[in-house]
Amino acid sequence: MLALAAANFVGVVLFAAVYAAAGARWLSETAFAGCMLLLFALVTVLWVQTEARHRALEPLRRVGRIAVGLVVVVIGVPALVLLPLSKLETVLPPEAGVDRVTGPAMALLLVSLALVTLVNAVGSVVIVARAVVGRPERQPPKV
C-alpha cells in the first residue's frame, strides 16, 4: 500500500511540475502535450510495476491496496500543501501575497490528482488485461 501511495505521490509531483512549467510559459503547447503524454505513460508503467509486486495476493486485497494507496495521496497531498498555505495566510500580512499562490496551488493539486486517478484507472485496466490474457486456457477434462 505504501509503495502504491509513493508511486502516486511521484505522479502528483511530476504532473504538477510539468503543468506549472507550462503555466509559467516555459514550455510551448506542443512540448507540454508531448511531456504530458510521455509522463502519463511513464507514471502508468511505474504504477503497474509497483502494483505487480503483489500479484500473488487475491484480487480483493489487491483492489483494497490500490484504493488505500490512492486515498492516502488524495487526502495527504492537499493536506501537506494547503494546510501550510492557509497557516501562512493567517500569519503573514495581506501584502505578502500568499493569497495569490493559493489559487494556482489548488489548481495544480486538482489537475495532478485527477491525472493520478486516471493513471490508477488505466493501470488497473492494464493489470486486469494482463490477468485475462495471461491465464492459461482451461483444457476440457479428459474422458
Tell me what the structure shows.
- The chain has 143 residues and is an all-alpha fold.
- The protein has one domain.
- The chain contains four helices and no strands.
Write the layout of secondary structure elements.
Layout: H1 2-23, H2 29-52, H3 59-91, H4 99-134
Helix pairs in contact: 1-2, 1-3, 1-4, 2-4, 3-4
**Radius of gyration from the alpha-carbon trace, in angstroms:** 20 Å
- H/E series: HHHH
Mean model confidence by pLDDT: 88
Q: Poorly predicted ranges (pLDDT <50, ≥5 residues)? A: none
List how many beta strands DSSP finds: 0
Largest sheet: none
Gap from first CA to last CA: 46 Å
Helix percent reads: over 70%
Shape: elongated
Strand content: under 5%
**Count the helices. How many?**
4
User: Could you say how many structural domains there are in total?
Assistant: 1
Structural class: mainly alpha
Features:
143 residues, mainly alpha
Task: Characterize this entry briefly.
With 143 residues, the protein is mainly alpha-helical. The chain has helices at residues 2-23, 29-52, 59-91, 99-134. It has one domain (2-131).
